[in-house]
């Protein structure tokens, strides 16, 4: 598949691109660790927020007050006061509305996050906004405030190390809330561990491996056992997850490029264009061309 084009997300760029542009930290924030608070209700240019885009970094939002509506990978979410939100690197997202927002934003490259935290973040899928109890949110708000304070001390001795360490504390607190409120545990039974491993493999191999048996072989288990674990944990069969991941990538490509459906099918590993078209409609509920028309309105 063609490599993503970096830069601002503009309609003109979308028409020239064959894939989804990814904003790097340097391009978007001018740094590989960026901490900010709302100013006038937004973190940065409102028009940029409204355009679908994706970033190479991890994004964490700590929302003290106000209302926000947004899309992540074409799913709509809303968040209110005392809430947190995490967006994975590479997820397509945009704001669809915000009012009276007060809060903080942390954008940070993977290289600056504790390896164990990165592993836990990879396992947080799908991620939705979490509304927190006042006491728990207060602790996170203080951690965000401390990160903001350190971020402003740009020339102090050990500034970089202090900022990195404080941001990791904030990340750990946010992960802890997701693990607690989503009912996940740091030590999971075998079916959950297998399901997490499968999802990670799927994200890395969905273009080439379309059969459940391929993932079972990599995990050194039988295909029926893999399906039993995944369906028991998620309620959906392994084949459903594979199809959903393929169609998600197809949606991204339909939105951001002018490649034909046949070309997109080939990029995603399908030589049979008719089969891919039927698969897309089955999963998405609309044809690929109808999705492109509706998503670009």
From TrEMBL:
Domain HTH araC/xylS-type: 196-294
Pfam family, one: HTH_18
GO molecular function, one term: sequence-specific DNA binding
Record keywords, A-Z: DNA-binding, Transcription, Transcription regulation
Keyword Ribosomal protein: no
Domain of life: Bacteria
Entry keyword Transport: no
Official protein name in the record: AraC-like DNA-binding protein
Lineage of producing organism: Bacteria, Pseudomonadati, Bacteroidota, Sphingobacteriia, Sphingobacteriales
